[in-house]
Amino acid sequence: METLSSKQKKYLKSKAHPLKAVIQIGKAGVTEQSIQSIDTALNSHEMVKVKFIAYKEEKERFLDEIIEGSKSQFVSLIGHVLTLYREHEEVEKRKYTVPE
Q1: Where are the domains of the chain?
Q2: Which end of the chain is more exposed for a tag (fewer CB within 10 A), N or C?
Q3: What are the CA-CA distances from residue 17 to residues 35, 89, 92 (Å)?
Q4: pLDDT of residue 93
Q5: Are 46 and 4 contacting, i.e. CB atoms less than 8 angstroms apart?
Q6: What are the strands of the beta sheet with 81-85, ordered from one edge?
Q7: What pLDDT, in 10s, does the model give residues 31-84?
Q8: Which CATH class is domain 6-93?
């Protein structure tokens, strides 16, 4: 899937609103383990929120590393919470019907 269009991001943001952050980036920063946790969460949830507890001022610096490492797509960054999306490989397990 290519980068998300603004219409697709808007749809995903509306679906992400009630979700709680399942991953937290703490004082260890973005590590291989945290990227692996994000990857695992995306496999089960398709869309996850990542909350920056530490490194709040440098969060933009970590975006590319997180997105590339988890093979996900950027949905939004609101405050200290990053929302990521990755479409499930199996069509019948997809939770979101992203508009074209």
Answers
A1: 6-93
A2: C
A3: 22, 23, 23
A4: 87
A5: no
A6: 23-25, 47-52, 81-85, 73-78
A7: 999 999 999 999 999 999 999 998 888 888 899 999 999 999 999 999 999 999
A8: alpha beta
